Amino acid sequence: MNDIAYANNLQSIAKTQIGSLPVSSPGSENDTIAIVELGNKIFRDINLSENRIQACITCHPLNGRSAGMDRQSTSRGTFGQLGKRNTPTILNIGFSNVIFWDGRRNQLYDQAIDPFINPLEMSLPSETELIQRIQNDPTYQEYFINAFPEDPNPTLHHVRTSISAFERSLISNSRYDDFINGNLIAMTRQELDGLKLFMEIGCTNCHSGFTLGGNGFGRLENPSLYNPNDLGKFEVTGDPNDRYVFKVPSLRNVSLTQPYFHDGSVSTLNEAIERMNAYGLNRNIQKQEIDTLILFLKTLSDKTKTN
């Protein structure tokens, strides 16, 4: 089979099994440019942490080649306090209905305020303090007038709405999507081999849909592979069946967002694949196949970033 015929056949299969990333996130229909710009300002404002040195973007860097997470095993809060879990990328988060590793939120609107008042993160004493700081900053006035002209007073609802809108706008653009959307030469033959292997061995059993994960849970059955003191979803639900159950992360931008797993214990993509070899795959994979999978996974990266 020649390369074009091979690519065309794989494109047809991948369209069905995986799909491509939509151009907009669900719920973004009413997200105006002004609302997104306000959310961006709040996201970057270090004055909204207790000692005014940290912003959302500190742990979720976006500028330049950064891919929405800080590449730390676990991030530190505004006083240097160590977080409990690895910071996930925020790119494409608008397509996820499972927020946080333990799934304690399922909507961006509900999640938006949490980092500001989390004692391990930005450490504000209350939601009231957050709103007061915004109200006392004159640079916000024009932003709120533009975003909410009928009611420009800063409120929790406005903050939640604008941060959610900004987060929904963070959609990556990859060579894989170019391929699925019609450019048959967007991926090399070796990368296509990786895509074919990814589908054949059952990676999509867990990393499913056009986000390749991010909307479901999985149980890590072997506590020797990670931090056994973190009980995952059980800490939210109290259901014994939820012990060691965690969100299955999206694989988009995965080659840019090491370290891996909820505890950030794995520094390389190669080791992460080796550890996942026994979880839900149709067969064990060889070292050379891992290298081939990595070639494919790199095509899921935003084209403005770097592998």
UniProtKB/TrEMBL annotation:
Q: Which GO terms describe its cellular component?
A: periplasmic space
EC numbers: 1.11.1.5
* Family matches, as PROSITE patterns: CYTC
The residues that hold heme c 2 are: 203, 206-207, 276
* Superkingdom classification of source: Bacteria
Please give the Gene Ontology molecular function terms for this protein: cytochrome-c peroxidase activity; electron transfer activity; heme binding; metal ion binding
Note the InterPro entries from the entry: Cyt_c-like_dom, Cyt_c-like_dom_sf, Cytochrome_c_Peroxidase/MauG, Di-haem_cyt_c_peroxidsae, MauG/Cytc_peroxidase
Keywords associated with the record:
Heme, Iron, Metal-binding, Oxidoreductase, Periplasm, Peroxidase, Signal
- All copies of domain Cytochrome c, residue ranges: 189-301
> Which cofactors does it use?
heme
| Cofactor binding note from Swiss-Prot or TrEMBL | Binds 2 heme groups.
Modification(s) after translation: Binds 2 heme groups per subunit.
Which Pfam families does the record match to this protein? Answer: CCP_MauG
Q: Where this protein primarily resides, as one coarse class?
A: periplasm
| Location relative to the cell | Periplasm
Report the enzyme's class at the first EC level.
oxidoreductase
This protein is called what? Answer: Putative cytochrome c551 peroxidase
